[in-house]
């Protein structure tokens, strides 16, 4: 791993690997502080410039917020670029998997609030994250949650004629409009994912865990009930709407989905984020104003 670091950095160990690169822990010798060094290829398998790498770099360089992971440096190596980021020892995914130290209700509220603050900042810049999930939410030693992994991030334009890739978001956190093949979506896709993450923190397990896209959509329908066309008239125009029919569902009662949660106000916030029609989902700002946080 010598190619990772010029003289300023000392590599300690490899800590994770993902679709868009892998990460090692290092020491910044100029400050004697821990850093995370993410190696990304600047060309994809077809030899073209990697858009995901460029987008991640551009987003990180343009963000300056307490709830967005901070980029410290960039340097080239033999096959790509290395992004030097502030070191975050934990992920929300790791905390959710830690059965000996489960999240308390106070932490759930704090982490949800910080996630929404990060998204509010990002959306105000006109940026969609498009892959909000527990593994992409990092936690610092002092308990600050920060948004990370911007390989799927994209500038959002309110021009309705603009199309975006439907191949975004990890399946369990993917909104129904994308599951039905929509290429004309907005920053509200992040709000659906946020609702799924919030629900997972309250439940301790994922809310909608399908093994295929069709099963994922079936789970959404079984949980929320069949979508009503008068509430979401645009559904008929989605590319995959007529490709498969699902049995009619009345949906489940929200309180029954959270057997260990007695906080009806928290459940109400989940229900206002997990809404079929993207136009009716709470924005990050509206969610921050919800009575759950007051």
Notes on the structure:
- With 294 residues, this protein is α+β, with helices and mostly antiparallel strands.
- The chain has helices at residues 51-62, 92-97, 105-124, 176-179, 188-203, 213-224, 254-257, 264-273, 284-288; strands spanning 9-18, 21-28, 33-41, 71-76, 80-86, 90-91, 127-128, 137-139, 145-147, 154-155.
- The strands form three sheets. Strands 1-2-3-5-4 form a five-stranded antiparallel sheet, with helices on one face. Strands 6-8-9 form a three-stranded antiparallel sheet.
- Helix 3 packs antiparallel against helix 5 (188-203) and helix 5 packs antiparallel against helix 8 (264-273).
- The protein is globular.
Topology overview:
Layout: E1 9-18, E2 21-28, E3 33-41, H1 51-62, E4 71-76, E5 80-86, E6 90-91, H2 92-97, H3 105-124, E7 127-128, E8 137-139, E9 145-147, E10 154-155, H4 176-179, H5 188-203, H6 213-224, H7 254-257, H8 264-273, H9 284-288
Antiparallel strand pairs: 1-2, 2-3, 3-5, 4-5, 6-8, 7-10, 8-9
Helix pairs in contact: 3-5, 5-8
């Amino acid at each position: 791993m010598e190619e990772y670091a010029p003289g300023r950095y000392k590599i300690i160990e490899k800590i994770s690997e993902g679709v868009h690169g892998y990460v090692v822990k290092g020491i910044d010798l100029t400050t004697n502080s821990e850093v995370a060094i993410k190696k990304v290829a600047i060309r994809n398998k077809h030899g073209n410039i990697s858009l995901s790498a460029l987008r991640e770099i551009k987003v990180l360089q343009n963000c300056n917020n307490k709830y967005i992971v901070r980029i410290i440096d960039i340097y080239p190596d033999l096959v790509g670029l290395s992004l030097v980021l502030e070191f975050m020892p934990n992920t929300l995914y790791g905390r959710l998997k830690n059965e000996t130290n489960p999240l308390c209700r106070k932490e759930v509220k704090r982490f949800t609030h910080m996630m929404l603050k990060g998204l509010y900042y990002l959306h105000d810049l006109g940026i969609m994250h498009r892959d909000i999930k527990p593994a992409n939410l990092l936690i610092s030693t002092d308990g600050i949650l920060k948004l990370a992994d911007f390989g799927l991030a994209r500038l959002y334009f309110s021009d309705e004629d603009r199309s975006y890739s439907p191949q975004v978001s990890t399946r369990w956190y993917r909104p129904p409009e994308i599951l039905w093949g929509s290429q004309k979506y907005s920053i509200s896709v992040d709000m659906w994912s946020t609702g799924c993450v919030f629900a997972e923190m309250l439940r301790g397990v994922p809310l909608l865990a399908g093994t295929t896209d069709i099963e994922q959509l079936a789970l959404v329908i079984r949980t929320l009930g069949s979508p009503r066309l008068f509430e979401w008239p645009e559904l008929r125009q989605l590319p995959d709407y007529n490709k498969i029919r699902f049995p009619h569902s009345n949906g489940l009662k929200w309180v029954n989905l959270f057997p260990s949660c007695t906080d009806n106000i928290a459940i109400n916030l989940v229900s206002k984020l997990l809404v079929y029609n993207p136009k009716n989902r709470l924005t990050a700002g509206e969610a921050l104003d919800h009575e759950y946080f007051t």
